[in-house]
Specification:
The chain is an alpha/beta fold. Helix content is 53%, strand content 12%. The termini are far apart. Bound molecules: iron/sulfur cluster. Iron/sulfur cluster binds next to helix 5.
Length: 233
């Protein structure tokens, strides 16, 4: 009769073979992901976005190491993750009625001399003319968006709980967008992230053209104010 001790060496060798196959599989996937990422950075085109997102999340630690080895910076990695998420969410976002959408902009986008007061639903923009938020807010609210100037990290969750939007647009630095996207996933929200073009604590900047282009996805052109007609894609 075969005892456990007779099978033990086979068992160990089987585990060894499975481990080697697993490591080889990860390395092959890693190099495919590396190729797809470099292609995406150079051409701006995402190939196999579902595979890329799943692979980059599952193999995040290894991929960061591989990217470093091949001169791809962490920032580029995060940027690709944001682009991937946006690409995968675009269709669902476009199909979401504007009445179920909200947009969250960070308070650092304001002018340093902003006169807005803080109230329960964020900063109360007075459209004073010192920054672009004062232009964007009335236009996007006219279309039907809930528009919030975010004063702190727990604010978004609170507003989502209160208004229950199905889709959100978030503006922020790369790290904020990555974390916000993860949070949106946990809350079952369709999210579109827009990365600021200048970071910092005050008077940051965003490409408002990009904000409008995303915000107008799926909106009937007849409902778009004439100031924003040029951004309909
Ligand atoms: S436009 Fe609004 S957000 Fe911008 S500085 Fe004026 S009050 Fe503040």
């Amino acid at each position: 009769m075969t005892s456990f001790f007779d099978l033990y060496p086979h068992f160990i060798s089987l585990i060894g073979e499975i481990t080697v196959l697993f490591v080889l599989g990860c390395l092959v996937c890693g190099f495919i992901l590396l190729f797809l990422t470099i292609h995406a950075i150079r051409s701006g085109n995402l190939l196999f976005p579902k595979f890329m997102r799943a692979g980059l999340i599952f193999l995040e630690g290894m991929m960061r190491g591989l990217f470093k080895l091949f001169g791809v910076e962490d920032q580029e990695f995060l940027r690709i993750m944001v682009t991937l998420q946006n690409t995968l969410n675009r269709k669902a976002f476009t199909a979401t009625p504007v009445s179920q959408r909200a947009i969250f902009v960070p308070q650092c986008l304001r002018s340093g001399a902003c006169p807005a007061n803080l109230h329960e639903e964020g900063l109360n923009c007075r459209s004073c003319g010192l920054c672009q938020i004062g232009v964007a807010r009335p236009l996007l609210e006219k279309i039907g968006y809930k528009f919030f100037i975010v004063p702190g990290s727990s604010f978004i969750k609170r507003m989502v709980k209160r208004y229950r939007p199905k889709a959100i647009i978030g503006i922020g630095c790369l790290i904020e967008i990555k974390e916000g996207t993860e949070m949106a996933g946990q809350l079952n929200l369709i999210s579109m992230g827009i990365v600021t073009s200048r970071d910092g604590c005050v008077e940051t900047a965003v490409n408002w053209d990009e904000v409008y282009e995303v915000a107008l996805l799926g909106i009937d052109p007849k409902d778009v104010p004439h100031e924003l007609q040029q951004y309909i894609s």
